[in-house]
Design goal:
By secondary structure, the protein is α+β, with helices and mostly antiparallel strands. Helices cover 49% and strands 18% of the residues. The radius of gyration is 28 Å and the shape is globular. The structure holds (R)-mevalonate (MEV).
Length: 438
C-alpha cells in the first residue's frame, strides 16, 4: 500500500471523502454512504462539529448514558457518562444506589492550583541569574496584565513565579515555574498565553540587565507550556459506613467482605500490575464524565497516572480501611477541569450534560468526577471479591451441563464442591458425572 497524499487539508470535505473512499475501499460508494450516514441533517450543527478539528469527514458516535442516584455531599446527581464499555454505566448506577442508602459520597476539593513552566537555557553565573530574577519578577506580572485582568476579576490569576535551577539534571537548564488559579476554566489557554509573555519578558529584560555579560544575556527559551501534572489540584472522594451495613444480596458476611475488599485495595497499593488495572477501573468512571462534560480526558489521564506514581512506584489511587467497626473507602486524585470555556458552551450535548449536573462550578465537577471514579472502583472490587467475573461464567457453564445430565440435588452439591476452584471444561464435568454415577 502506498497512499501518501500532498495537500490533503486543502481539499474540500467531499474531495477528502472521495479520496479516502477510492484509496482504501473496494466499494467506494458503500464507504461514502457509511461516512455520510453519520452526518447530521442540521447543517449548522454539522458545521460546528466539522470545525472542532482539521480534516473532518464524519462524526464518530459514542453512547451517552445516565447513572442516577448519586448522593454527593447531601445532593442527588444524575451523572451523564460517555463510554463504549457495556457494563460501566450499570456498575456506576448500582454503586450509586448502594451508597445512597449508606450516607452517600463525601467529596472535598483540597486545592486547585495549576502549573506552567518556561523551560530555558542559561550559560553563566547562577548568582547573577538569581539576582536578575529577583529584580525582574514584578515585570512578569505587569507585562501579563492585559491577559490576567479578566481572570483576576473572577478571583484567579498568577499565584507565584519561581526560578528553578535544574542544572544538576540537565546542563544549563532552568525554569520559570509558575502557579495559577484559573477558577471555573481548565485554564490551558490562559496559562499558555501568560507563559509565552513570561518568555518574551525574560529574553527582553535579560538584554537590559547590566550585570550580565553578552553571553549571559543570550537566554535561550526552549519552550513555554502548562503542565498536565497538577499534584496541587486535588479532590478527595470518600464513602464510609458501619461494616454490618455493607450486607446485601451478594454480601452475606459483611465483615469477611470488608476484610477481603481492604485486602484487594492493599494488593493494588503494592503491586503495579494490579494497580494499573485497578486504576483503569477508576478511570472508566472518571473518563466517561470528563468526556460528557467536554473536558480533556488525555490531560486528566496523563496527570492521574503521574500522580499514581508519585512515590516512585505506580500504586493504587484508592485506599480502604476498617477501624472501630467502620469501613472507609476513599481516593484522592488530581483533576484539572473546566465548566466554562473550551467545548462547554459549544457542544450541545456538553451543555446538556452540564445542565443535568446543575451547572456545576469546576470544584463541584471535580467532586462529581472523582466520586464516579470511586463508585466504579467499588463496583469492580465488589464483583471481583465476591462473585468474580470468571466464577459467573463457570457457574453458568456448569449449570448448563448439570441440566443436560438431569442431575439430582445431591449430585449437584458434590459436583459444584468438586469444581469450586477448578477450571471447568465440558469434558471434565461429563467425566466427573460419569465417574460419580458408576
Ligand atoms: C474493566 O474495564 C475494569 C476492571 O478490570 C477493573 C478492575 O479490575 O478493578 C474490572
Amino acid at each position: 500500500m502506498n497512499n501518501a497524499i500532498a495537500g490533503f487539508s486543502k481539499l474540500s470535505k467531499e474531495e477528502k471523502i472521495n479520496w479516502i473512499a477510492t484509496e482504501y475501499f473496494t466499494s467506494p460508494t458503500d464507504a461514502i454512504a457509511t461516512i455520510k450516514q453519520y452526518w447530521n441533517n442540521d447543517e449548522s450543527l454539522q458545521k460546528l462539529h466539522d470545525e472542532f478539528i482539521e480534516n473532518t469527514i464524519t462524526n464518530f458516535y459514542l453512547p451517552m448514558g445516565i447513572a442516577p442516584n448519586f448522593l454527593i455531599n447531601e445532593n442527588y446527581y444524575s451523572v451523564p457518562m460517555v463510554i463504549e464499555e457495556s457494563s460501566v454505566v450499570a456498575a456506576a448506577a448500582k454503586s450509586a444506589k448502594f451508597w445512597s442508602t449508606r450516607g452517600g459520597f463525601k467529596a472535598t476539593v483540597l486545592n486547585s492550583e495549576k502549573i506552567g513552566q518556561v523551560h530555558f537555557l542559561y550559560k553563566g553565573d547562577v548568582d547573577k541569574l538569581e539576582q536578575f530574577f529577583k529584580q525582574t519578577k514584578s515585570k512578569f506580572y505587569t507585562e501579563t496584565d492585559s491577559i490576567t485582568k479578566n481572570m483576576q476579576k473572577r478571583g484567579g490569576g498568577i499565584l507565584d513565579i519561581e526560578l528553578r535551577n535544574k542544572t544538576k539534571e540537565l546542563e544549563n537548564y532552568f525554569q520559570l515555574h509558575a502557579t495559577f488559579e484559573t477558577k471555573d476554566s481548565m485554564g490551558a489557554n490562559f496559562i499558555n498565553s501568560c507563559l509565552e509573555q513570561f518568555a518574551k519578558t525574560l529574553k527582553e529584560e535579560a538584554q537590559n540587565f547590566s550585570d550580565f555579560s553578552d553571553d549571559e544575556k543570550d537566554i535561550q527559551v526552549v519552550m513555554s507550556i502548562l503542565s498536565n501534572y497538577v499534584p496541587n489540584c486535588i479532590v478527595r472522594a470518600e464513602v464510609s459506613c458501619r461494616v454490618e451495613e455493607l450486607a446485601e444480596k451478594n454480601i452475606n458476611n459483611p465483615q469477611e467482605f470488608a476484610e477481603k475488599f481492604v485486602q484487594a485495595v492493599k494488593i493494588a497499593e503494592i503491586e503495579p500490575f494490579r494497580a494499573v488495572t485497578h486504576n483503569k477501573g477508576i478511570m472508566n468512571g472518571v473518563d466517561a464524565v470528563v468526556l460528557a462534560t467536554g473536558n480533556d480526558f488525555r490531560a486528566v489521564e496523563a496527570g492521574v497516572h503521574a500522580y499514581a506514581s508519585r512515590s516512585g512506584k505506580y500504586s493504587s489511587l484508592s485506599h480502604a480501611k476498617i477501624e472501630n467497626g467502620i469501613f472507609t473507602f476513599w481516593m484522592e486524585m488530581p483533576l484539572a477541569l473546566g465548566t466554562v470555556g473550551g467545548l462547554t458552551s459549544l457542544h450541545p450535548l456538553v451543555k446538556m450534560a452540564l445542565q443535568i449536573l446543575g451547572k456545576p462550578s469546576s470544584h463541584q465537577l471535580m467532586q462529581i468526577v472523582a466520586v464516579t471514579g470511586l463508585a466504579q472502583n467499588f463496583a469492580a472490587l465488589r464483583s471481583l471479591t465476591t462473585t468474580g467475573i470468571q466464577e459467573g461464567h463457570m457457574k453458568m457453564h456448569i449449570n448448563n451441563i448439570l441440566n443436560q445430565f438431569e442431575t439430582s440435588d445431591e449430585e449437584r452439591k458434590t459436583i459444584k464442591k468438586h469444581f469450586e476452584n477448578k477450571t471447568i471444561s465440558h469434558a471434565s464435568v461429563v467425566s466427573f458425572i460419569e465417574n460419580l454415577r458408576k
